[in-house]
Prior knowledge:
This protein has a domain at 122-179: Nucleotide Exchange Factor Grpe, Chain A, domain 2. The chain contains two helices and eight strands. It has helices at 20-92, 99-118, and strands at residues 4-5, 10-11, 121-123, 136-142, 154-160, 163-165, 168-171, 173-178. The N and C termini lie far apart (102 Å).
Amino acid sequence: MAEFDERDDMPDEVPEGLDPEALADFAGAEAVNEGLVRERDEMRALAQRVQADFENYRKRMLREQTALSERASESLVEQLLPVLDNFELALLSLDDADEKVRKGVELVYADFLAVLERAGLQRIPTDGEPFDPEVHEAVAHEARSDDSGEAHPTVVETMREGYRLKGRVLRPAMVKVAG
């Protein structure tokens, strides 16, 4: 085997039939090849980082769009709650109205409520429930009329319905408590 000089990576002796210039070109090509392999590896790593960054960006944008959409629907449902309250008041005042009018208003109310429920709206349970400041807003208090000995206040009357939207309190129920 031929020995290489550390100075130029060329063997001291050139095998017979091999041109020394060709050997120098080969050594230069090896160096170029190593440089290209390094550059390729760097570019591959860069492409993988860019791809990971883009995937993270895509996921973040999807989360932000979902949150924006939920906030928009929450805002709309919140604006519709007074309409729902007025519908309920209208139903209570239809006692002496024509049966056809009453039935029509009840159908529209039922459809309206069904649409809101499909959007994730739920009523907060009130009458007879233990008072929960997370979902009930106490606006009146009365002494307990029975001797049940229960220490916790209980909701005895609902003044305004409360609602959750997709599990989150949208509007607390306005209630009267006893106890």
